[in-house]
Amino acid sequence: MNLSITKNKIINMDNLKNNVLIAEFMGWVNITPTDPNFDIYELNTEGGKKMLDKHGFTYHKSWDSLIPAIHKAICIVNEDFTIDEFKTHEGFVNNQFNINYRSIDDIYKSLIELIKTIKHLGY
User: 22, exposed or middle or buried, with CB in 10 Å at 0-12, 13-18, 19+?
Assistant: First the structure.
């Protein structure tokens, strides 16, 4: 298992990679892409800019982080997919994001797959 250790925190490298995927989907931008020692991300919000190291993303363990990403993905599916694309993904969305019956890990993995699909379709 690949692990990354930073500031006494250990994170699975798959989670790190997937958290970055979700963060970029949410609008975070790597402002240090040419520096191999740092991965600092920035997000422009109405309240100003937020900055965070890639190890600071908590989508894999925090509903507070994950829910807005789920909402954005579902909005894209509902608003931007064509009828045929939506029919293909409608069942997936309805089944995968029923948070009343699924663990955060299951929902997290489902969101990763949906984001990959959205990106693949060019949205």
Answer: buried
Q: Using DSSP, how many helices (H) and how many strands (E) does the chain show?
A: 4, 5
The tokens 């993904």 sit on which residue? 89
Average the pLDDT over 81-97 and give the result. Answer: 55
Which residues are paired to 53 by β-bridges? 40
**Start-end of H helices in 12-58:** 13-25
Global pTM?
0.77
pLDDT in tens, 90-104: 555 555 556 566 788
Q: How many CA atoms does the CB half-sphere of 77 hold within 13 Å?
A: 22
Query: Around 57, how many Cα atoms within 13 Å sit in the side-chain half-sphere?
Result: 31
Is the dihedral angle over the CA atoms 66, 27, 43, 55 positive or is it negative?
positive
